[in-house]
Design goal:
Blueprint (H helix, E strand, L loop, with lengths): L1 H22 L8 H14 L1 E5 L6 H11 L4 E5 L5 H12 L4 E5 L4 H10 L3 E4 L4 H9 L3 E6 L2 H10 L4 E3 L6 H11 L5 E3 L8 H6 L5 E3 L6 H5 L3 H18 L7
Helix pairs in contact: 1-7, 3-11
Amino acid sequence: MNSLRLAAQRTIGTRCMSTAAANSSLDRMQTAENFQAVLDKFAQIRACAVLRTPTSEACPKAMQAAIDGGFKIVEFTLTTPDCLEHLSNFRSKYDGDVMVGCGTILTTEDAEAAVDAGSEFIITPVMLPDVIEWCKERNIVCVPGCQTPTELVNAYRHGAPLQKLFPGVTGGPMWVKAVSSALPFLSINPTSGVDLDNAGDYLRMGAASVGLVAPLFDQEAIASGEFDQIAKNAEKVMNNVREVGPYVRKA
């Protein structure tokens, strides 16, 4: 396991040594303590509410319902109208309690705008080395979307401490078990294919954390204004997640 980790980290170590001096003056630089605090929160809570709504009006109501149901990590996606405005409002409202991030980031410019709005972490739908490295240089946690073991490892090598499994893969939790056993330095975050009932199974099979999208934010409930249903969904899945307990972070 140690040799696997060392091999995977070699590229990161070389890059960090060569750019350390330049990094000290980068814009939007975060502290190393903040970087670790974000990872600690993911390890403790282990579930993130991932919201995309067709209208701006529905966004804060749906996310509030998820928080009321127990979520302590939330992600606003750029496909939602007025995403950054809502993100900023929730960061101000819940700073220090609920951790707020931004998803569907496709460029470093997207990442800049998200951080300026208050995003505490960055999520990408695909493996984007330039965004991962931009975040790594600034002590910002980036969780890039990956589909294959090769992409997961490449994301790790570029500096992503968590790797988002997206979209869902055939095999579900057992796929995560197989990959995390063979590549134990990875910290996999399945986001597609996770539902209210199997979230705990993913965690037991080796996932570091999970993301909840459509099963949590039922679009019919949102359209009809039944936000109490979303709160109930959140309560159910968070109960399943808590049963598994915290994640032991990789060294």
